[in-house]
Amino acid sequence: MKKPTRQRLIEAARELFLSKGYEASSVADVLARAEVNSGSLYYFFKTKEQLLLAVLDEYVDLLEPMVLRPAFERVSDPLDRVFAVLAGYRQMLVMSDCRLGCPIGNLALEMSEKSEVVREKIALNFRNWRKAIRQCLVDARDRLPPDLDRHKLAAFILTVMEGGVMQARVHRSLEPFDASVATLKDYMDRLVEQGTTRPIQQANS
Amino acid sequence: MKKPTRQRLIEAARELFLSKGYEASSVADVLARAEVNSGSLYYFFKTKEQLLLAVLDEYVDLLEPMVLRPAFERVSDPLDRVFAVLAGYRQMLVMSDCRLGCPIGNLALEMSEKSEVVREKIALNFRNWRKAIRQCLVDARDRLPPDLDRHKLAAFILTVMEGGVMQARVHRSLEPFDASVATLKDYMDRLVEQGTTRPIQQANS
DNA sequence: GTCTATAACTCGATAGAC
DNA sequence: GTCTATCGAGTTATAGAC
Fold it and tell me: A152, B183: Cβ pair inside 8 Å?
């Protein structure tokens, strides 16, 4: 059975915005892909931008089932989970021959100056992503330096993912992504080593 | 005196593509900003895409005088120079209230799938950037681990810059950029420490 | 090399019947 | 809620005089 019209529109827009960006995807493209007529789209969404906002709302909802859960089901160690999440983005690069990257990062650079409300929704997506990663760092706090700033490190991990994906797409090669993730791994191994070999740990410090 | 028409067109396009992106900048916008008429633009450039390619060629030429030289003039230590380059991008964020980021990264995500020749020019810009950073790492090789993969680390540094700039623009805040650069600094300090404290260094190793 | 005028088309969005 | 027809503006690009 066909999904409801509104949902079909959001999915079509999501796919198009991911592969071609927002400006380059015309309303007509969305209509064709969703097999919906113009009148119906504008019944559900006042403007094309409202459709984008609905897509970004959906990404907020999809973080858990599409990004976190699949990664967390594969491994249970909190630090491994961080890299399992990153491996998920690698998988997207592999499957698309390095053509598709992070859907949010995509829209981030394109839309940040064009619409405040869109920018704020993208920021929300980033905040939720970092929060999930930060929780992994909290769960692994016994192996990490006690004075570690987990907010900073979570932002850094998102930075590495987005920067690695960007270079992979530009070079159509996994190499820069893998190099970036491997270097992050080296850094975090050093943090753990420091956490492990430091003198007797004090309670409540 | 007014600059030659062709140069005015490239500069106008450069500014517009930086602040609004390629698709969102119309040819009419470029013409107005450059104070040139349609006929002249199409005398120099066969299409809008050819104009973009000329802009990307100019960025290749501008890497040395606009990005590297100003940073390298301020400091001479090769590792400090890496962070001086990053500070240059921070300055761009500061001056634009976190609205303008890396011009190449901007176009990278927007244009990579739309045109192979554009993607290749963007890749060239990235390669040259990494090469300059790699030279800094070569110049500092005595303080870095002997088995360090400088290609990987240079890619990582570009990753950190691009990812940090992206988050800064989305959140309209320097915080994620500063957090990312500070974490990179921490990592590289650890590499130097390892290089410094490692046992008596063997020659030709 | 530069000018004006405009072709040929696509864009987002709307009207109004059903 | 969905359909078709279409508006008006904006798009890239061209023609042809100067």
Answer: yes
Q: Which fold has domain B53-197?
A: Tetracycline Repressor; domain 2 (1.10.357)
CATH number for A1-45: choose from 1.10.10.60, 3.30.1490.100, 3.40.640.10, 3.30.450.40.
Answer: 1.10.10.60
In chain A, beta strands by DSSP E: none
Pick from A106, A163, A186: CB nearest B163: A163
Written as six digits, the tokens of B57 are 């060629």
pLDDT in tens, B98-156: 999 999 999 999 999 999 999 999 999 999 999 999 999 999 999 999 999 999 999 99
Interface test with B, best of A19, A20, A104, A109 (most B CBs within 10 A): A109
Measure Cα distances from B95 to B98, B99, B175 in Å.
8, 9, 15
Nearest to B161 by CA among B177, B139, B183: B177
Work out the angle at residue B43's Cα, subtended by the Cα atoms of residues B40 and B47, and round it to the nearest 5 degrees. 105
